[in-house]
Design a protein that fits this description.
The complex is a heterodimer of chains A (279) and B (333).
Chain A: H1 2-17, H2 24-30, E1 35-37, H3 40-49, E2 55-59, H4 71-74, E3 79-80, H5 84-89, E4 94-98, H6 103-111, E5 116-119, H7 125-138, H8 142-158, E6 166-171, H9 183-190, E7 193-195, H10 208-213, E8 218-221, H11 230-233, E9 245-248, H12 251-254, H13 261-274
Parallel strand pairs in A: 1-2, 1-4, 2-3, 4-5, 6-7, 6-8, 8-9
Helix pairs in contact in A: 1-2, 7-8
Chain B: H1 7-27, H2 35-43, H3 49-83, H4 95-108, H5 111-114, H6 118-138, H7 144-168, H8 178-183, H9 191-210, H10 212-218, H11 222-227, H12 232-254, H13 260-268, H14 276-300, H15 309-332
Classes of the chains: A alpha/beta (279), B mainly alpha (333).
Amino acid sequence: MFFSDLRLRCLAAWLCRLGLCLLVSCHAAAAPERVVSLNLCTDELLLQLGDHKQIAGLSWLARDANLTWHSAEAMLFPAVRGVAEEIIRLEPDLVLAGEFTTPATVALLERLEIPLLRLPLARSFSEIADQIHQVADALGQGARGREMLADMRLRLDALGDGGGTITAALFQPNGQTATTGSLLHEVMTRAGLHNLAADWPQFAPLPLETLVYREPQLLVLSRHGAHVSLATELLEHPVLRGRLDRIEIPAQAWTCGTINTVRAVEILHGAAREGRPET
Amino acid sequence: MRIAVPPWLLYTLLGSLLVVALYLAVAVGRAPLALLDTLQAAIGGEDNVATLVLTELRLPRALLGLLVGASLGLCGAALQGLLHNPLAEPGIIGVSGCAALGAVLAFYTGMAAAIPLALPAAGVLGAFIAVALVYALAGRQASTLAIILAGVALNAAAGAMTALVLNLAESPFAFLEIIFWQMGSLADRSWAHVGVALPFMLLGWVLILSVRRDLAALSLGEETAASLGVNLSWVRFAVIAGSAAAVGSAVAVSGVIGFVGLVVPHLLRPLVGYDPGRLLPASALAGAVLVLFADVAVRLVPTGVELKLGVLTALIGAPFFLYLIFRLRRELT
């Protein structure tokens, strides 16, 4: 009976989380074996921290090479679109979901008492660290998590603590930019850039005129793939050509806040160091 | 009732309005510019942030506004003359919608990036099919009802197809861009857009203006016009192909900006003494003025995402359209 078995396992996991787990064997039994992720960012964390045999399904977005560097690996697992039925069929003993992931499905999973870990979008490196910690624990991969955190801290420390001297602005499709409190702002700051759009209202597009008028020394661009749209055409406007130094950050590095986001800091740090970055 | 004003007065008036509109279009924006100094600097070949904003953003936008507005005004007047119907407007009869469909097909498949002029050419083709269809469906001397119904059908089909293409497009941003194609905007356009649209627009203007006297003769009826030596099939072709070229290329770079071709000729018709020939150049000028003022207004409305131009022209145009229907309702029933 899959259902009662599931209930039992849920109960075990629940007891563990309450801190009642005093026996080592209990912890080992609680490590989930059929984990399903419903969100691109939890997909990445699951692939980075879990064993392949623990993974029962990933979101369909994880297969898009424009969004994540893990796309090839993600092909090895069933893809889910967030419909409750397909998830239940995978008999998960843990579901990872984003804050806003398919609310109806998530509500149903809660009613079926399938263990659920919901993670919001990470908005800083300390939140990324928290999430790595949380997911590693939930997967019973505490050691791997601690290793990753140590690696992340080491790589970030190697870059120093910024001290923004080079002015820069992020320009994404539709004129989206990085404002104070966002992960991308922290990425830029840690790379030693002074973000000229830090004060811009969150989620409001930065008009081309404003961007040009603020005279960033470095224009940081990022896009999801090469598909044609008016949104991405904006990045090629002639007013941005010629005068401004440009650097392109692969969207895969910072679409989700994970260990991969350190790569974005490293690329930007390199560009800031060189003064004249690659175009 | 003839309240025609002398041509020199009308053109002086429209000309000065156009100058004011152009000035505002170049002066108003997000970045504070000392316009005269910047203009001098730009002419002097200086290269700084201010001249960059002026020459790469404001000037192409203003010029495109002028060209698009003139095209819409001119074609509205010409189509109303040809179809002998006051409601024949590129947006209402579905010409703009079909042009947008053509442009969307060329743009999101990557064809526009690969082949120069493919974008406006696709818009022109879409527009041409639409005008030809309306003419075939409704014909000259058609009832207002037939024109409107043809327009409803074409707009519905073109709108649905546009939505379909955008939903199937690979870019994750595409489906939201339906707002641009259906409501139009001149934001962040560049000289490249002016460059690709201009040749088609000029061709369209030349074609239409070349038959402006014939349109005047046509207003007396086809037989009378023929007896006056008007080559009917040529006039028909010139207006249809000319409108397709001008509207199609305008829509391809700025989306559908509705109602300009409806409002402008109606406001001017009494002022030119109901002469369809004289109406054409005046409508072109006034169309440019209207679009430029509307484009200045969208920049002044304090919204996070800039308002689409078609929102404003529809706010002006839709009540006007209702008023016209009210006036024409006897014919409609």
